Amino acid sequence: MQQLTKRQIQVLLQFLENSEPVTTKEVADQQNVSVRTIKYDLDSIRLWLQERNQDLTSKRSQGVWLKLSDSERIKLKSELMDVDRLELFADQTLRLDRLSIHLMLTNQAITSFELAERLMVSKDTIINDLEVLEKQLTAQKMTLERLPRKGFLITGPEHQIRLLIEEVLQKDLTDYDIYKIMELLLQSEKQEGYELYSAKGTAFQEVFNQVIADMRQLLKQIDTAELNYAELLNMLIRVAIATVRLQNEYTIGRYQLLNDPKEQRELSYLLMQQVFAHYHLPLFEDEYRYIYSDTFENDPQQDVMALTENLIHKVSKKINYSFSNDPQLLTNLYAHLSMRLSRKQKFVNEYNPFKDDIKAKYPELFDAIETVVRREIHGKSLLINDSFVAYIALHFLVSYEKAADLRSVRAVYVCSTGLGVTSLIKQKISEELSNIEIAAFASVLNAKEIIKQKEPELVISIFPIEGIDCEFIKVHPLPTKQDLEKIQQAVKKILSQSPQKGSKKLRLEPAGNRTSLEDFSKELILQAYTIYEKLLLLFEEQLNQEYREAFLLHVFLMVHRITFDQQYMMEGTKTDEAQAESDLRNNQIEQLFTEHNLAVNQSEINALFAYVKGNQ
């Protein structure tokens, strides 16, 4: 039977989830490997598929895809997701993970011969892996001990060893693992345990399944709606780690017993109590503190809003891209940090399925965020790892993608310049493509002059043109579907390579749907009038009738100001009844404008109350 690596499974899942052709270059970029590596992977995938009477379809200039019915896709995907990963070929990274786990979940030295048998590789391979592992451990203040005639053992600060065990276990989990573990917790009857890839053949595996069984019984007695799956996963892993390390006579702190009635109501305490009782272990206070959180003690309090504003400002400065104009980023990031930093249970190694992709695809943004948060977040440096940074990066990426959607690439189209031809091309591009603005059409005779005059970022031409210093695409006289795809890819490339490039489109203009300023003006007027009518309902009888026409004009101009980023910015704050009245409706007004994709500030909201009775 053909075996697949973890990367090959990911590539095949991509083919199963998307019926459109994809090039090997695109797959290589997504996996952050070379095209040659992907071609070798595709050979293995083809063999795996052929064993199931299926095959990949490929065509030059288009790519690779799977021709399958929906039922066939579901069947293959189910088999692939449930494949026994313990039988997959392990590359060196995975071997190092398993090697370190075996050496940390024991108090006895293990020989290289025994390690080779456990990992099913040669002794020479193990010796080479141990040399690499030794360097990694030294960087983390741990030591690979070589005991004569006994073997190898990892030693170091207990907290560091436990963090490394946890990091390896969490890192090798997949979405499928998380789903199956959570499913086991919610089953009412006794279930078989779950085998963790990194812990195969260790004492941890049996303990982990006992922890799952005990947690399952506890969850029957509480409301699971308020639980966080990441915290549950951390509790399971940490209780199992503490159990195995204590069995091997390694403690994380003092031998003082826990005797605090407040803690005995916590789920983490109840789980620890159940598992430790099963293995006849004492309930040490420091073990509970390790299981409960990485920051059990009170941390310095920080102004989270000021922290959020500083993060946005300093990250923007580091990568030379302004995120400060996005009020939604401020709101969402503030909410995320407030919850993350105020949670009682904080863990260093939280499962984050986005971490590796974000680090690979957006290294500059990731590094900038990591540098800034380490400087700005006080007292919680232990929590700032790749997972923590990646969750913050998600908010910045949402903001960036939203801004990218509002930008367009200026293009000059070189073709035969008949009115019918240009109209047809313009219509086809407006219907099929996004984020592109045709600045001018040109003929081969005046192409260079027009290009120099318009300074486009992209030139599309039916003729080869030399001597231009911007992106160039040659297309057929009447653009084909493949031509349009090439143009769209070039647009995405330009916007991604230079975030500041691209002229910002008007806020209300969906890409490719506006053909004239008249259309945009019409929609702006209709939108303003819709908002005016909704505000009338909101204010009801409080609106002063003699100012109703003025209120209409005010709302129209207000929508115009917001659309063109020219909102009021008033100094100071009100303290009279008008301010109290506005506080009651702030959220409703802000929600109304948000529904119309308009971010209104507080000064604009305050100005509306000038038209309310008693405030003139």
Automatic annotation (TrEMBL):
Which superkingdom, per the lineage?
Answer: Bacteria
Q: Which InterPro entries match?
A: BglG_antiterminators, HTH_11, PRD, PRD_sf, PTS_EIIB_2, WH-like_DNA-bd_sf
One biological-process term from Gene Ontology? phosphoenolpyruvate-dependent sugar phosphotransferase system
Write out the coiled-coil annotation as residue ranges: 208-235
Ranges for domain PRD come to 299-406
- Signal peptide (residue range): none
Enumerate the UniProt keywords alphabetically: Coiled coil, Repeat, Transcription, Transcription regulation
A Pfam family of this chain: HTH_11
- Name all PTS EIIB type-2 domain ranges: 409-499
For this protein, what is any one GO molecular function term? Answer: protein-N(PI)-phosphohistidine-sugar phosphotransferase activity
Name of this chain's protein:
Transcriptional antiterminator bglG
